[in-house]
Amino acid sequence: MLGLRRTKQVSELKVYAEPEYMSPSSIGTFNQCPMRYKYAKLDRMPEPSTEAQVLGSFVHEILEDLFKLDAEDRNESSARRIGKNLWDKSWGAEWSSLPKHESTENQFRWKAWWCVENYFKLEDPTSFEAKGIEEKVSGDIDGVPIFGIIDRWSIEDDKLVISDYKTGKKPRPRYEWEKQMQIMIYSILLEQMTTYEVGRAELIYLKSPSKAIYEPKPEVISNVKSNIVQTWDELTTSCSTGVFETRTGPLCNWCSFKNICPAWRK
User: Fold this and answer.
1) Strand, coil or helix: what is 71?
2) Helical axes 105-122 vs 51-66, angle rounded to 10°
């Protein structure tokens, strides 16, 4: 756990209705800090976009549009054209509207392009077809309703290959479980929705560049399901009681709600 100090706030309690579902990312948010989950998902308090988030979304859309082309057209030249069109259409304005800039426009666009260039170092997009792009998946995992969106999935040797792009740094091994769990959740859901078994799930780190490849081994799936059920039980208990734990740690420095969090309020 990342938490260095934990407290439970019992004043001004508000009871919440049980959420309709959890997503792989919201499971991670709740496990990091239930109070942050409450602010973001239940109170729906706005969080300003960051340059890293815009970069990730921009690169994701370039790769999404790349796979809409015929196989022979999926090359760097096409990706560069797609990126320029998307920038002129929407992402230039999105970047300009950020409350804080860590890079100049030119630096930002180069960061995005380096991610795209690195993608072509990791795989050949002309060698396979994506069966699903930005695919919505939903289902029930041991009684817990789950919804998510898979970046891309394909079929290889009659088995599912699930791929998720990452534009951030590859986490150190001690922090890798959250990322692995998220893509394993997608694996469970997609198996439920198709007639195929999962061959592998992969996280494509575009900044490194590198891939983290995971097999859906029974012990891993069992741990994922146990974590989902435990998280759901804790969440529904928090909603019914109004008690949300605060977990402080290094990630607090990037939290939009630090200034109102009871753990940091002086």
Assistant:
1) helix
2) 50
Burial class from Cβ neighbours inside 10 Å (0-12, 13-18, 19+) for residue 49 reads: middle
Please enumerate in sequence order all residues whose Cβ is within 8 A of that of 19, keeping only pairs 6 or more positions apart, or say none.
41, 42, 235, 239
- What does the DSSP assignment read for 99-136? S--SS-HHHHHHHHHHHHHHHHHH--TTSS-EEEEEEE
Query: Is the distance from CB of 26 to CB of 36 less than 8 angstroms?
Result: no
The residues near 79 (Cβ < 8 Å, ≥ 6 apart) are 62, 63, 66, 116, 119, 120
Structure letter (DSSP) for residue 197:
-
Model pTM? 0.90
- Rounded CA separation 69/26 (Å): 32
The per-residue pLDDT for range 37-79, each reduced to its tens digit, is 999 999 999 999 999 999 999 999 999 999 999 999 999 999 9
C-alpha count within 13 angstroms, C-beta hemisphere, residue 202: 16
